[in-house]
Structures are given as C-alpha cells and as structure tokens.
C-alpha cells in the first residue's frame, strides 16, 4: 500500500516537474515553429517554384507566354512550350508524342476523359502539365494536338479570332493561303509574288517593313492585288496568311 502510495507521489511529483519543464518547452517550440513559419514558408514556396520551373523548363514556359496572349495559344504552341517536356520523349511513362501505339489506349478513353485528366492531373501527369496559366481551351487544344498526332481525330475549340497576332501563320495562315491566296500567289498569276520565291518577295517588300506592306494591301489592295486578297474572314487571319507567305520566302 505505502509502496504504491510512494510511487504514486513520485509519479505525481514527476508529472509536476515534467509540466514545469515540459509546458514552457512545448510553448517555446510552438512559438519557435510559428515565428519561423513565415520564414520557412517563403523559403519553401521559392524552392517549390524553382522545382516546378526546372521541371517545366522555364525557357519554354516564357516562350508560350511571350508568343501570344493567354487564351489564344494553339495546341501546337502549348505542346511545344509545356507538354513536350515530358511527352516529347515519353518521360515518366507519359505517352510519347506521335507514338500511335502508346496513344491508342489513351485515345480509347475518349476526348472528355483525357481533357479531364490533363486539366486536373492523372498519376504522374500534373494538372495542366504544371503550367497553371493555361486556359481550359488551351489545354484542350494541346490534348487534341497530341492525341491527333497519335491517331485521334479530336476537334478542340479554336483560338478566338482577332486576338492580334495570336493566330498561328503555320496553321490558320496556311489554311487561308490554300483557300484564297494560292489562286494568284501559288503560280504568280497577274504578277503576284509567287509562294516560296525569295527574289519576287524581296522585290515586293523592297526593304519595307512587312507589317506596313501587309496593312496596306489589307486596307487598299495594290493594283491587281484585291483589297484583303478578296478574303472574307477576319483581318488577323489575312495577316496570318500574309506572314505565312513572307515567312516561306526568307
Ligand atoms: C511533368 C511531366 C508532364 C508534363 C509536363 C505533361 N504531362 Fe501529360 N502525362 C504525364 C505522364 C507521366 C502521363 C501518364 C500518366 C499515367 O498514365 O499514369 C501523362 C498523361 C497524359 C495524358 C493521358 C491521360 C490519360 O488519361 O491517359 C494526357 C491527355 C496528357 N498527359 C496531356 C498533357 C498535356 C496537354 C500537357 C501539356 C499542357 C501535358 N500532358 C504535360 C506527364 C506530363
Ligand atoms: C486575284 C489575285 C490575288 C489574290 C487572290 C491574292 N493576291 Fe496578293 N497580290 C496579288 C498581286 C497581283 C500582287 C502584286 C501587287 C503589286 O505589287 O502590284 C499581290 C501582292 C501581295 C502582297 C505584297 C504586297 C504588295 O503590295 O505587293 C501581299 C502581302 C499579298 N499579296 C497578300 C495576299 C494574301 C494574304 C492573300 C490571300 C488572303 C492574297 N494576297 C491574295 C494578287 C493576289
């Protein structure tokens, strides 16, 4: 009885001692943690950003940001700036770009599921490929671009027209060229500078700023060159077609 009493008293004393030392120590640690918290937080978020940037190759990301206003980037642009980091070589088990064998089972899931996984992440696939600034439509376009290169025939929402210079000359510009400008510029009809002919295009541009030349034929035409080349779509699409021709005559 007395023995157990004594040990009871001992453990009671021990408890008080522990409380006397332990409680302040505990508070000290909590306070320390709390005050250190802001510092640690800053450090951590910097590290995380660095880690993310390193993984996403910042050069590529800034390229996509610089090349076109957000929301108007094409699937190809998004792929080349963001998704290529993994999907280009099939890193981390990602389906490799252009590999129909790897994309087949993915495509079979359906466009909506793939979009959902690309937007919100899927195993080692980060949400939006890790590029939080991509809009939903841009991600959709990138999914379609990659899946179509692997055998799908998905149709993604097109970039909004009129987003100044955002329309890819190699995609939309080429399309407008094929449908409209080629009639004359394909063969040099009526004295039009022929597609791909450096000499003829250099002579037409004659050292002038291509932008000014394009704006002029867009608004006024030039001799046999009809106003806007007779194109009925948007001004930006006409500009893209003109850039497409000029880019291929360099
Ligand atoms: C950091 C690497 C990484 C980047 C960057 C990345 N992906 Fe992925 N992606 C993966 C991996 C890994 C998988 C395979 C995940 C799995 O099946 O477990 C994947 C799978 C996918 C799939 C198939 C999902 C499914 O359900 O099978 C789609 C679609 C996709 N990615 C789209 C994109 C798009 C669009 C981008 C660019 C905006 C992108 N990814 C960028 C790593 C990446
Ligand atoms: C009916 C024929 C015709 C069509 C269609 C046409 N062009 Fe032209 N284009 C011309 C001719 C002719 C010239 C040469 C004008 C000149 O310098 O006298 C020209 C010149 C140009 C030039 C050089 C600028 C200049 O003043 O010479 C650009 C840029 C151009 N066209 C863009 C386009 C685009 C873009 C389209 C399609 C959307 C288009 N053209 C469709 C006939 C055409």
TrEMBL record:
Q: Which PROSITE patterns match?
A: CYTC
Q: Which SUPFAM superfamilies match?
A: Cytochrome c (SSF46626)
> Which keywords does this chain's UniProt record carry?
Electron transport, Heme, Iron, Membrane, Metal-binding, Transmembrane, Transmembrane helix, Transport
In alphabetical order, the GO MF annotations are:
electron transfer activity; heme binding; iron ion binding
Q: Where is the Cytochrome c domain?
A: 70-150, 168-249
| Segments crossing the lipid bilayer | 12-34
Protein name as it appears in the record? Cytochrome c-555
What organism is this sequence from? Amantichitinum ursilacus
Q: What is the lineage of its organism?
A: Bacteria, Pseudomonadati, Pseudomonadota, Betaproteobacteria, Neisseriales
């Amino acid at each position: 009885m007395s023995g157990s009493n004594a040990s009871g008293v001992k453990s009671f004393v021990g408890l008080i001692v522990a409380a006397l030392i332990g409680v302040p120590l505990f508070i000290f640690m909590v306070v320390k943690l709390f005050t250190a918290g802001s510092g640690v937080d800053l450090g951590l978020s910097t590290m995380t950003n660095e880690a993310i940037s390193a993984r996403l190759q910042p050069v590529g990301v800034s390229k996509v940001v610089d090349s076109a206003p957000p929301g108007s980037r094409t699937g190809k642009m998004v792929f080349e700036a963001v998704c290529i980091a993994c999907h280009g070589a099939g890193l981390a088990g990602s389906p490799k770009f252009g590999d129909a064998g790897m994309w087949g089972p993915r495509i079979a899931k359906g466009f909506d599921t793939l979009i959902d996984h690309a937007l919100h992440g899927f195993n080692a696939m980060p949400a939006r490929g890790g590029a939080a600034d991509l809009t939903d439509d841009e991600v959709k376009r990138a999914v379609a671009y990659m899946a179509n290169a692997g055998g799908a025939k998905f149709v993604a929402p097109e970039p909004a027209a009129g987003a100044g210079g955002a329309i890819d000359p190699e995609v939309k510009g080429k399309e407008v060229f094929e449908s409209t400008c080629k009639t004359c510029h394909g063969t040099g009809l009526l004295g039009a500078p022929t597609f791909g002919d450096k000499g003829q295009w250099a002579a037409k541009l004659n050292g002038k700023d291509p932008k000014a030349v394009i704006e002029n034929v867009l608004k006024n035409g030039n001799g046999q060159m009809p106003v806007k080349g007779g194109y009925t779509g948007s001004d930006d699409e006409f500009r893209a077609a003109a850039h497409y021709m000029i880019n291929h005559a360099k």
